[in-house]
Amino acid sequence: MKKKTVIISGGGTGGHIFPAIAIADALKERHPDLHIEFVGASDRMEMQRVPKAGYPITGLWISGIQRSQPWKNILFPFKLISSLWKSYRIIRKHKPLIAIGTGGFASGPLLYAAARNGVPTIIQEQNSYPGITNKILGKYAHKICVAFEGMERWFPKNRIVITGNPIRENLLSANVDQATARKNFKLKPELLTIFVTGGSLGAKSINQSTAQWVRETFDETKHQLIWQTGSTHAKDYLPEFEKKSGIWISAFVDDMSSAYRAADIVVARAGASTLSELCALGKTAILIPSPYVAEDHQRKNAESLKENGAAEVVDEKNLTEFPTILNELIANANKRELIAENALRLGKPQATLHIVEQIEALL
Questions:
Q1: Where does 4-165+349-362 sit in CATH, by number?
Q2: Angstrom distance (rounded) from CA 289 to CA 324
Q3: What pLDDT is recorded for position 84?
Q4: How far is Cα 188 from Cα 171, in angstroms, rounded to an integer?
């Protein structure tokens, strides 16, 4: 009997990959007979993260358009033609019931090929300002699941459903208390803990500010640190800090559930998926929005949380303020608790379920 197949495509960064995996996990739990195939970019992190989550993935020779270095786009037309051709082959081979895109380079050719072959499509847009891939795909999608109001500026209004962003199920369901989570990082269960992350690739400014704070302020008798440098910057910080007492430092954190649960304070970028996780878990956060994203949407997302008393925000151009704000939160337990409560009120922990319900309606 032919397998009932769903194809999911998205990647390039954790912000596209982890929502895709969350949707796949929820679909598989509700429909064990479904076969789920992933499609990603052949040289990006989804080629490692998706198989690790237990799903097969096919890579496309595709990359984004380089706006700042246009000479690097010389191969883009060839990559696009190659990816479209391969996407058509994938669709015809698997004959999926539905195709789902969570953003990123590879989802463009795959969902376009699916739509052209009469396969129902859904896109999930995490940000308040969509990327170019999802803007294009919105013309073909049957449903567009979003996390922010006002997305009719970019997508057909009658196809938009406000669901929130998918949260990795293991973040919500993990049965680990704070003390155990800290022990998982070889840290003391009783000390206040800060978790710093600039994402899977890393953020230079966050790493630099964290290093400065550690050199000038860090006190291993009062607090401790979980520090994800990102793969790009690990070599710059591990040699200096990996043997320092009270600090767990690595290029990547595999056990994000424990990292979040261990933390009293999280320092992070303001990508939509990160903010959704912080709110769903009710974490006190200092957000440092990336200034290198379209329409400055990270800053807008972060300011929305700050206006609701759900986060502290430091602009990249004002990073000298970071140590002061961090030290104030370390010293003020009442303020930490208030921010965490406000964040929890904004959380949408059922977002993945709502997206799956939209998928089921098309199935």
A1: 3.40.50.2000
A2: 17
A3: 92
A4: 21
